[in-house]
Structure formats: C-alpha cells, structure tokens
Design brief:
single chain, 245 residues, alpha/beta, six-stranded parallel β-sheet, globular
Length: 245
C-alpha cells in the first residue's frame, strides 16, 4: 500500500468512518527518541557509545513491560522501568554515570519529528487529539511541554495500570473520552500497536517512521495489514481526515 498520499483499505480518504478522537503512540511515532537519548548518554557517560547504549536501553523496554502485562510484577510507571533498565544496560557495558537519575529523564526531553506539531494542530482543529502511550501521565506532560505537543488530554498506560499492547490501555482511552472504540482512531508507526488497537475495536492509521531506529531499521517500514488509513506523515493524515466525516 503506497504511503506518499493517504490511502484507505475501505475505499479512499477516511471513508464512512466517524472518528471523533485520535490517540497516538508517542515514542517513535510522534517523537524521535534515538537521537536525543544517544546525545544525552554521550554527554552523561564518559567513553560511552551513545547510540549503542540508547539502542540497548530501548531493547529493555518491552521485556520490562512484559513482566507487568504477564502479572509477574505489579504496575509501576515507565520512569521506574527506564531507570532500572538504564542501570542494567550501563552495568552490561561496564559504564558508570555520575547522575543516572537525570540521564533517565532524557525520555522527557525528546524531539518531535518535523511534521508532528503542525500535523497535530491541524488534526486538533476538528478532532480530539491525545497520546496513548506507555509513558506515565507525568512523563507525557513533561515531554509535551518540551516538544510542544498540543494535546487535548493525556491518556495511556496510567489510566489502565497496564502496558500496551494490552487491550485495556486502548479501551481506557476511549472510556476516558466517553466514546465507543470505533469512534477513536489509534495512530502509530508500529504495526503491532495497531493490530492490538484494532483487536480492541478501534480504527487504525499507520504513519511510518523509517528512521526511528536509525538508517539500518528493518521493521515497520510499511503497513503489514489493511489499516483504515496509511499516510506518509501527519500532514497527509490530517488532510485525509479533513475529507472524511
């Protein structure tokens, strides 16, 4: 399916969908995490390969959340997991950091992709926009202030006390907005995120971020299912949604 213009598996534009709210994956979809985190690691940790540490740090993300999703650990906010994962990665690399707490907060200081802020503002003119992130409310508020993300509300893991792709996270967002799931569209650069959202009854939109993991990225370069919308960037997605109801 082409992504140079928005396309729909249901016949062009947003078809007959009545979408009242858009909820967004944040890390990777709305913001570039690799470049800022790599930079923060290099500045805070002598002799570190900032990019290698950042990638390994991110690789700890899903296993740490899986222990909570699987019931092996009670819910804790993502900031705690980020700090624990940082300690583990630094130890694995044989590195020390004078101020690991400040370095762990690098995830609150990420940069938006060039199309993110203007695209969100354009979409917000007609629909509710909010994050559906595994980041806590506190993390998402601070990140929004840093990156200028114009959210109407902060939604996500804290509401459900669980982590995506658990269906409770997507459904908690719809419930918080007092909308049925089919009036809510999940926007993400990750096919797995969209698959879980669709299984929970939400509409879906795929926007690729081929540099999320750097120039060697091999996954999520294209849609792997018939998502409701596929767009090259947020502006293209906004234009397509303007054509719909």
């Amino acid at each position: 399916m082409a992504v140079d213009g928005a396309t729909s598996a249901k016949g062009g534009g947003s078809g007959g969908m009545r979408i009242e709210a858009l909820i967004f994956d944040v890390f990777g979809t709305c913001v570039d995490w690799l470049t800022p985190v790599s930079r923060a690691v290099a500045a805070a940790v002598p002799n570190a390969d900032g990019r290698a540490v950042a990638l390994d740090w991110r690789a700890e993300y899903d296993p740490a959340m899986a222990r909570i999703r699987d019931g092996a650990r009670g819910y804790v906010p993502l900031e705690i997991l980020h700090r624990e994962n940082l300690d583990a990665v630094l130890a694995r690399h044989g590195l020390t950091c004078a101020d690991p707490a400040t370095l762990a907060d690098a995830w609150e200081r990420l940069d938006p992709w060039p199309d993110t802020v203007a695209g969100l503002r354009r979409m917000r003119a007609r629909r509710i926009v909010a994050p559906c992130s595994n980041g806590s409310i506190a993390l998402m508020v601070r990140l929004a202030r840093h990156a200028g993300l114009p959210w109407d509300a902060i939604l996500g893991a804290d509401l459900a006390r669980d982590y995506k792709p658990a269906p409770a996270v997507y459904l908690a967002c719809a419930t918080a907005l007092r909308l049925p799931p089919d009036r809510v569209m999940m926007v993400a650069a990750h096919n797995g995120d969209l698959r879980a959202a669709r299984d929970a009854g939400l509409a879906t939109a795929f926007v690729p971020r081929p540099l999320e993991y750097g120039p060697g990225q091999a996954t999520d370069l294209a849609p792997d299912a018939d998502w409701d919308l596929v767009a090259a960037d947020f502006d293209t997605l906004a234009r397509s949604l303007e054509d719909g109801p």
